[in-house]
Amino acid sequence: MALTEETQQDKIEIVGDYKHVQVRTATVIKRDGVEISRGFSRHVVAPDADITGESAEVQAICAAVHTQAVKDAYAAHLAAQAAEMTPAEEEPAAEETPAEGGE
Predict the structure, then answer these.
(1) pTM metric for this prediction
(2) Closest alpha carbon to 55 in 43, 70, 37
(3) What are the residue ranges spanned by the domains of the chain?
(4) Spatial distance between the Cα atoms of 30 and 55, rounded to a whole number of angstroms
């Protein structure tokens, strides 16, 4: 009985306003050439990601959909999110003066 394991990118999707590329990878276990198990993992490639480690197919898709306009829009989106997350500077509290006629 020979067990073998192979991986294959079986689904590549383009999702969202910023054209994220979602890649599903299947890991297939076979015994004597007959599939006995299949598991999946996913990862997402953003427009600003380094794609040098991706497969040639994913690189080609990213090159087609991650245009400069998409990259610029995504960078602006990230900058806007970062600005929302940065706490606004609070004004110093006014010094309190004791009330007249107090104890």
Answers:
(1) 0.76
(2) 43
(3) 3-83
(4) 23
What is the tens place of the pLDDT at every residue in 9-60?
999 999 999 999 999 999 999 999 999 999 999 999 999 999 999 999 999 9
Phi then psi for residue 80, to 5 deg, are: -65, -40
**Burial track 53-71 (b if 16+ CB lie within 10 A, e otherwise):** ebeeebeebbeeebeeebe
Q: Could you tell me if 8 and 28 are in contact, meaning their C-beta atoms sit under 8 angstroms apart?
A: yes
CA gap 43, 46 in Å, rounded? 10
Q: Which tens digit of pLDDT belongs to each residue from 76-101?
A: 999 999 999 887 666 666 666 566 65
Max CA pair span of the chain: 96
Query: What is the distance between the alpha carbons of residues 85 and 57, in angstroms, rounded to a whole number?
Result: 36
- Look-up of token digits 């192979």: 6
The single residue listed with the structure tokens 């953003």 is: 46
Q: How many CA atoms lie within 13 A of 27 on its CB side?
A: 6
